[in-house]
Write a structure and sequence with these properties.
Helix content is 43%, strand content 13%. The protein is an alpha/beta fold and 460 residues long.
């Protein structure tokens, strides 16, 4: 609930205590840890590596740079820091940079505080407003980050050297909050130099004027290791001013990879868990492949976009074929790979073999998923039925009902029910997806054959 104090006098009477941003974050982080609450909601795979390092850096009051390849959750981790700020924080009403009522730092606010005393008006700022994020680009200027002389204020009659002529940039406007800079090496080196005073002395210099503004900010940044040699680098003095440099990584556990996809993907149709698992295993196989340029990484966005694409494929089929319930099936994975291939950078020696590599790794991921969930099931009766001439037709435009009605009869066998039970399939779409995975597993084990073409796949 938003506090009710509206003046400095009321704020003092409420017992409010001024804390720096670092003290505030430290206290809230320690309170969460003591209470057993997770300070990092939505962060997966960093529990034993990145998170402990980040927590120690914040407790120490350090500015932080996260170093890692694309799609490792660096930006999401930075945005989660907002949850460690107080929900509501008082600011001087009308202050350009959100100064605390007990500690005005600009000329204008100090003058107002001297004139109004306990009557100085107070506003309340939500913690979401205390997080400032900037994507570093080569055209970013000192004025963008630090500030510049405002010609309009000069035209109004103020002297050029008057501190009130300054238009504050991103960092001063992040006073009493968190300033995040994404892709820090992309900043031109002369712009990084302008950050040196902010990082160490916590003051700013604009066109020869030194404004002794004791800024209270937590500066956090992200960088890709490859940027140090390709597009740019973090200059040594600036790098030295960050108290902590923390390496991020892709999820090391399959469960974490799946959790990230489930959390981030905006799915327009149902995607069974085993289909998401194939995508997760496929992504991990790409990261381990010597044919893929690992310096550029294989982003978590690859699996996320893959899940969204197979869901779209299922909805597309449902719309065209009149299915009531859209459910993604293994056959939709091939359509996703066709779309996502451009997100992968291969080693130059593999030119011309890209499709072959992707197809091989997708088959490997599918086979691993089949072994993980269907191990121990006796498929002999189904293999025999297909060996005696039965065929199963599926495809990206074949409905789940058509897949199920086209399955060979197995007499008293409960094989289909056992497959569906293992994969938690209940409705027609889920059952078709489960049995299709089993058929693909049998094909990959070379127990049955498969022919694909014209949007149709036939197991026989």
């Amino acid at each position: 609930m938003r506090p009710t104090a509206r003046t400095v006098g009321e704020l003092r009477e409420s017992g409010h205590v001024l804390r720096s941003v670092h003290e505030e974050i430290r206290a809230n982080l320690l309170a969460s840890l003591r209470a057993g609450r997770d300070p990092w909601p939505g962060i997966h795979g960093f529990d034993d590596t990145v998170v402990p390092q980040l927590e120690r850096a914040l407790i120490a009051g350090h500015d932080v740079v996260l170093l890692g390849e694309r799609g490792q959750g660096k930006t999401r981790l930075l945005r989660t820091l907002v949850g460690l700020l107080d929900e509501w924080s008082p600011v001087i009403a009308g202050s350009e940079i959100g100064e605390h009522p007990f500690a005005p730092i600009t000329v204008v606010s100090r003058r107002r505080a001297a004139e109004l005393h306990d009557g100085l008006p107070v506003e309340w700022r939500h913690r979401d407003e205390r997080y400032v994020e900037k994507l570093a680009t080569p055209d970013t200027s000192v004025a963008d980050l630090i500030g510049d002389v405002d010609p309009m204020k000069v035209a109004e009659g103020r002297a050029l050297g008057d501190p009130e002529t300054i238009h504050f940039g991103l960092v001063p406007r992040g006073h009493r909050g968190i300033v995040a800079i994404n892709e820090l090496p992309d900043l031109a080196e002369r712009i990084q130099v302008a950050m040196l005073n902010v990082m160490e002395e916590r003051d700013i210099q604009i066109r020869g004027y030194v404004l002794r503004l004791p800024l209270d900010v937590l500066v956090v940044a992200t960088a890709n290791p490859e940027d140090y040699t390709n597009r740019g680098r973090i200059i040594t003095p600036l790098k030295d001013r960050f108290g902590a440099e923390i390496r991020t990584h892709y999820p090391t556990e399959l469960a974490d990879e799946i959790a990230v996809v489930r959390q981030e993907a905006a799915l327009v149709a149902e995607v069974p868990d085993h289909v998401v698992e194939v995508l997760a295993r496929f992504t991990r196989a790409l990261r381990e492949s010597g044919a893929v340029d690992q310096r550029s990484g294989v982003s978590a966005r690859f699996a996320i976009a893959g899940a969204e694409t197979v869901a779209a494929s299922a909805l597309h089929r449902a719309a065209r074929q009149g299915e009531e319930h859209a459910v993604a099936r293994p056959v939709d994975l091939e359509t996703a790979v066709d779309v996502l291939a451009g997100k992968i950078e291969f080693e130059s020696a593999e030119e011309g073999r890209e499709d072959e590599i992707l197809d091989h790794l997708l088959r490997t991921a599918t086979a691993e998923t089949v072994r993980a969930h269907l191990r121990g099931i006796d498929f002999g009766i189904l293999v025999d039925a297909i060996g005696n001439g039965a065929v199963v037709s599926t495809g990206e435009q074949v409905t789940a009902r058509d897949v199920l009605t086209g399955l060979p009869a197995l007499g008293e066998s409960e094989l289909y029910d056992e497959i569906c039970a293992r994969l938690g399939a209940t409705n027609d779409g889920e059952r078709a997806a489960a049995i299709e995975l089993a058929l693909e597993g049998l094909y990959l084990a070379r127990r049955i054959s498969k022919e694909s073409g014209g949007g149709e796949t036939i197991y026989g």
